[in-house]
């Protein structure tokens, strides 16, 4: 009879955790700049993190740059808060931790820097800087 209560508690935790994660992602999607990031395609999200790590204007603090690195290290080691062999909860904690890392990155980075990186990540890969006159003259020939 004891195992029945344990199984029931695990199922309740799975359902509650799944619903909480689903609600939190939907709630973040309605807030900016989180919504803009969540609407990006996968390659554009990778571009955002590449821009975050490169940081040409030196606006992103070093501890913010460490968050994605620490997240990748955590996700790559075999030890978890909740082991992955537990059907849903094992992966749910990884998703929750990734969402928490995203929130921390966006909260700790200055808003103008986040908006500039999101705008550049949304672009089609071309630079928004004006082209030099020499390149324009060569095209005209």
H/E element string?
A: HHHHHHH
- Counting copies of identical and different chains, the oligomeric state is single chain
Q: Name the structural class.
A: mainly alpha
Mean pLDDT: 82
Helix content: over 70%
Shape: elongated
Number of domains: 1
N-to-C span: 85 Å
Number of helices: 7
Biggest sheet features:
none
- Report the sheet-strand fraction: under 5%
What are the salient characteristics of this protein?
72% helix; single chain
Tell me what you see in this structure.
With 141 residues, this protein is mostly helical. It has one domain. Helices cover 72% and strands 0% of the residues. It is built from 7 helices and no strands. It has helices spanning 2-29, 34-39, 42-54, 62-76, 89-108, 111-122, 133-140. Helix 1 packs parallel to helix 5 (89-108), helix 3 (42-54) packs across helix 6 (111-122) and helix 4 (62-76) runs antiparallel to helix 5. The longest helix has 28 residues, at 2-29. The chain is elongated, with a radius of gyration of 21 Å. The chain starts with a helix and ends with a helix.
Question: What is the compact description of this entry?
Answer:
This protein is mostly helical and 141 residues long. It contains 7 helices and no strands.
Topology (elements, then pairings):
Layout: H1 2-29, H2 34-39, H3 42-54, H4 62-76, H5 89-108, H6 111-122, H7 133-140
């Amino acid at each position: 009879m004891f195992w029945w209560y344990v199984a029931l508690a695990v199922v309740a935790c799975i359902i509650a955790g799944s619903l909480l994660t689903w609600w939190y992602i939907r709630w973040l999607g309605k807030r900016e700049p989180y919504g803009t990031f969540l609407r990006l395609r996968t390659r554009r999200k990778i571009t955002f993190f590449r821009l975050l790590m490169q940081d040409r204007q030196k606006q992103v603090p070093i501890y913010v740059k460490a968050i994605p690195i620490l997240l990748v290290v955590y996700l790559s080691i075999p030890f978890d808060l909740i082991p992955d062999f537990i059907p849903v909860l094992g992966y749910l904690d990884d998703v929750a931790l990734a969402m928490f890392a995203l929130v921390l990155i966006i909260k700790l980075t200055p808003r103008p820097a986040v908006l500039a990186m999101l705008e550049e990540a949304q672009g089609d890969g071309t630079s928004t800087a004006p082209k030099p006159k020499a390149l324009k003259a060569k095209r005209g020939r």
